[in-house]
Specification:
Elements: H1 2-32, E1 35-38, H2 41-51, E2 56-59, H3 74-82, E3 85-88, E4 105-108, E5 116-117, H4 120-126, E6 138-139, H5 146-163, H6 168-192, E7 200-203, H7 209-215, E8 218-221, H8 233-246, E9 250-253, H9 260-269, E10 272-275, H10 284-288, H11 293-307
Parallel strand pairs: 1-2, 1-3, 3-4, 7-8, 7-9, 9-10
Antiparallel strand pairs: 5-6
Amino acid sequence: MKKFKIIASLLVLLFVLFELFVFSQKEESQSQKPIISVSTFSLYDIVKHIGGDSVTLSTMIPFGVDPHSFEVTPKIMAMLEKSSLALYSGAGLEPWIENIDFKAKAIDMSSYASLRELGSHELEAHKHHDEKCAHGKIDPHYWLDFENMKKSVTVISAELEKLLPENRDLYRQNRDKYIKMLDSLDENYSKSLSTCKIDSVILNHNSLGYLAHKYSFHAESLSGLSPEADPSPNDIKRILKEIKKDGVSTIFYENFVNSKVMHSISKDSNVVAEVISPLGNITADEAAANETYETLMQRNLDKLSKAMLCN
């Protein structure tokens, strides 16, 4: 019996040592992967689909936090110190980025995008919120233009190739697959929004300008480009007038904003208040559900198509 106990103890010890060895090997393998830090969800989604398990993907802005009002933390700074590559959206979306001294290569992805300047009507709605806004006359939500997303995909794929040239074929295959997905989304949007009875949408802030410009509908916002700005009584009066004039039945707001005003407008106007995702970031629940740029953009299309009474 004593001999049996000794053998059993040795087997348990061997099993524990084996588990520790496997764990250490896994940790070592993980630490050897280059860390790619990204600021916005669209960049996260691109790196995740192109780089896959070959890289360690880190988010500068935690899921569930509004990128407009985020402030960098010591934990994020420590991760950036270890990163091999940092990708940020730019165009004034992340004003806190100016205070970071990147140790590795950092890329302002807006420098590769076709940026949209605000029109005169948008500037008028936006100007009294300028003190709350860092991006001025430029609309920073350029990832909602599929052509801009393609440019980002191409740039990121090339950067990953430089870091890990042995994965070149994989990255190019994933790049082409992602671009094909973007083309499919573009086709869906073009088809679904081509015949709509209503040509306007109303939002808490002007986050859909690129979509509106490309697919020929009008986006009216309560607070210009600044989701954190407090709307004035004139803002609310203007939106109520637009709802009545255009026959709007649905108004939109984002998960990260205080929706109290939009729900009040919804009640007063007898219209539906619905969540829409501009994809600057996603919620923790959406991240847990493995939502992607593709699934969220398709859901946005379904909601917009329904709101504008599209065939």
